[in-house]
């Protein structure tokens, strides 16, 4: 391809592996991170369900996981990865650290999005006798939906970058391709191709997120 040792099938496989890792880890990470973000908001001192114990346990734990660089996290949880999928190498194995990486990241973004909701909306819900669950379901989440879409967009872009790093330890995907063919074989063309693909992915996802967020906020 373009005078490189790389052929089209390898490139397509790498793109598929990247999309697979991003999609699966995002879904699992969101299922964990969104509830955690909601808990951080509602259990804080002035939240709709104050609980100092839950908040003071969750807050530092999320901070700890968020403070660890992904490449270090990738290596640090190798035993956990092996316990879950039976191996620490390959595309499926990379999903475990990717999920551990993105879940607390999503939790913080969700927390920030929910905290942007006008307190008057919550007060109005309280005055109507809504329960905490009803406030979350019918007031808090709908009001923050536009911001939540942007938060998930940011999470996806962060995951794309993380999948590229996962290639350094045999995680597969575009990062693995860039390392195996571009860096180790000194093939500049492969490096350029992989960078262009990653940039296009990020631009498309960010544009889609921006459009969806504007649509939601206008409705």
Automatic annotation (TrEMBL):
<keyword id="KW-0533">Nickel</keyword>
<dbReference type="InterPro" id="IPR051322">
    <property type="entry name" value="AA_ABC_Transporter_Permease"/>
</dbReference>
<dbReference type="GO" id="GO:0048473">
    <property type="term" value="P:D-methionine transmembrane transport"/>
</dbReference>
<dbReference type="Pfam" id="PF00528">
    <property type="entry name" value="BPD_transp_1"/>
</dbReference>
<feature type="transmembrane region" description="Helical">
    <location>
        <begin position="53"/>
        <end position="77"/>
    </location>
</feature>
<protein>
    <submittedName>
        <fullName>ABC transporter permease</fullName>
    </submittedName>
</protein>
<keyword id="KW-0921">Nickel transport</keyword>
<comment type="similarity">
    <text>Belongs to the binding-protein-dependent transport system permease family. CysTW subfamily.</text>
</comment>
<keyword id="KW-0472">Membrane</keyword>
<dbReference type="InterPro" id="IPR035906">
    <property type="entry name" value="MetI-like_sf"/>
</dbReference>
<keyword id="KW-0406">Ion transport</keyword>
<feature type="transmembrane region" description="Helical">
    <location>
        <begin position="20"/>
        <end position="41"/>
    </location>
</feature>
<feature type="transmembrane region" description="Helical">
    <location>
        <begin position="83"/>
        <end position="103"/>
    </location>
</feature>
<feature type="transmembrane region" description="Helical">
    <location>
        <begin position="189"/>
        <end position="212"/>
    </location>
</feature>
<keyword id="KW-0812">Transmembrane</keyword>
<dbReference type="GO" id="GO:0015675">
    <property type="term" value="P:nickel cation transport"/>
</dbReference>
<keyword id="KW-0813">Transport</keyword>
<feature type="domain" description="ABC transmembrane type-1">
    <location>
        <begin position="15"/>
        <end position="206"/>
    </location>
</feature>
<feature type="transmembrane region" description="Helical">
    <location>
        <begin position="144"/>
        <end position="169"/>
    </location>
</feature>
<dbReference type="GO" id="GO:0005886">
    <property type="term" value="C:plasma membrane"/>
</dbReference>
<keyword id="KW-1133">Transmembrane helix</keyword>
<keyword id="KW-1003">Cell membrane</keyword>
<dbReference type="InterPro" id="IPR000515">
    <property type="entry name" value="MetI-like"/>
</dbReference>
